[in-house]
């Protein structure tokens, strides 16, 4: 991981930048285009969105206005829970492309596990075979959800995007994904701001002369997890990608590991009602 252009290699050989820019709650307004454009200006080449975020048109507009070639940017979106099922998922994908004003995606994910996981996954396999998307995967899947997909799929998931941060390290899931060559990706890497309340992170930020966010994101990368921080502050957008001039020591990595409590910040995939 030499710089922001460094990539993880997915199980189908596709390169996915280790660091991406998250767009959750960046809603439809003129300033939102500026946030994404700023991220592209400072070097991000991986943008994560979803249909439920309501900002796919913003992402598409920002990418178009950036002047950067489409094949130089890794774009992810996700199918929402009310669009599960084979036919609904295919239609949802077409709607996403239309909103993004693109003719393909780099990664398409099932946003949350639901009863129609298998039918929805068959639709993603179809999109992949038809070369409408370069990689397919899931989001918020636990081990038992992944096993359900893997038991009879033609194409194994390439990515699992989940809540992952020092307080919630998902050790069993991470080991399962590694064993099955599924790249783990972190959402909420800064614990929705709660990471700034952790004394150890303050201590390490001082030690490495970095921000708390930079230490947390560097920890993600050193654990082999793709990460997608989100910010609407221009300085933080730049700071969050300045991760390549330091390395956290093994001793300090172990200290961060010991912060794990297995307590989520977000929803439990087994109990969601949306």
Automatic annotation (TrEMBL):
Return the Pfam families for the record: Aldo_ket_red (PF00248)
UniProt signal peptide: none
Annotated CDD domains:
AKR_AKR5G1-3
Q: Oxidoreductase among the record's keywords?
A: yes
PROSITE patterns linked: ALDOKETO_REDUCTASE_1, ALDOKETO_REDUCTASE_2, ALDOKETO_REDUCTASE_3
InterPro entries in alphabetical order = AKR, AKR5G, Aldo/ket_reductase_CS, NAD(P)_OxRdtase_dom_sf, NADP_OxRdtase_dom
- Name the Enzyme Commission number(s) assigned to this protein: 1.1.1.-
Domain of life from the UniProt record: Bacteria
Write out the GO MF terms: oxidoreductase activity, acting on the CH-OH group of donors, NAD or NADP as acceptor
| Key words, A-Z | NADP, Oxidoreductase
Q: Which family does it belong to?
A: Belongs to the aldo/keto reductase family.
Name under which the protein is recorded: Glyoxal reductase
This chain's source organism reads Clostridium felsineum
């Amino acid at each position: 991981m030499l710089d922001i252009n460094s990539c993880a290699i997915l199980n189908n050989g596709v390169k996915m930048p280790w660091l991406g820019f998250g767009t959750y709650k960046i809603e439809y307004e003129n300033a939102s285009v500026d946030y994404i454009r700023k991220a592209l200006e400072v070097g991000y080449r991986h943008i994560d969105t979803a249909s439920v975020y309501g900002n796919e048109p913003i992402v598409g507009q920002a990418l178009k206005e950036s002047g950067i070639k489409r094949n130089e940017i890794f774009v992810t979106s996700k199918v929402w829970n009310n669009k599960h099922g084979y036919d609904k998922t295919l239609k949802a994908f077409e709607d996403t492309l239309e909103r993004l004003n693109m003719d393909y995606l780099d990664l398409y994910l099932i946003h949350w596990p639901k009863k129609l996981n298998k039918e929805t996954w068959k639709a993603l396999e179809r999109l992949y075979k038809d070369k409408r998307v370069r990689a397919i995967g899931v989001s918020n899947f636990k081990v038992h959800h992944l096993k359900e997909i893997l038991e009879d799929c033609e194409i194994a998931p390439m990515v699992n995007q989940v809540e992952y941060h020092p307080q919630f390290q998902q050790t069993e899931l991470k080991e399962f994904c590694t064993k099955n060559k599924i790249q783990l990706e972190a959402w909420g890497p800064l614990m929705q701001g709660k990471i700034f309340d952790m004394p150890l992170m303050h201590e390490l930020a001082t030690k490495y002369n970095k921000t708390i966010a930079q230490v947390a994101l560097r920890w993600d990368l050193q654990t082999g997890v793709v990460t997608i921080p989100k910010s609407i502050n221009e300085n933080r957008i730049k700071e969050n990608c300045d991760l390549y001039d330091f390395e956290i020591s093994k001793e300090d990595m172990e200290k961060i590991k010991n912060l794990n409590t297995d307590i989520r910040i977000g929803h439990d995939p087994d109990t969601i009602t949306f």
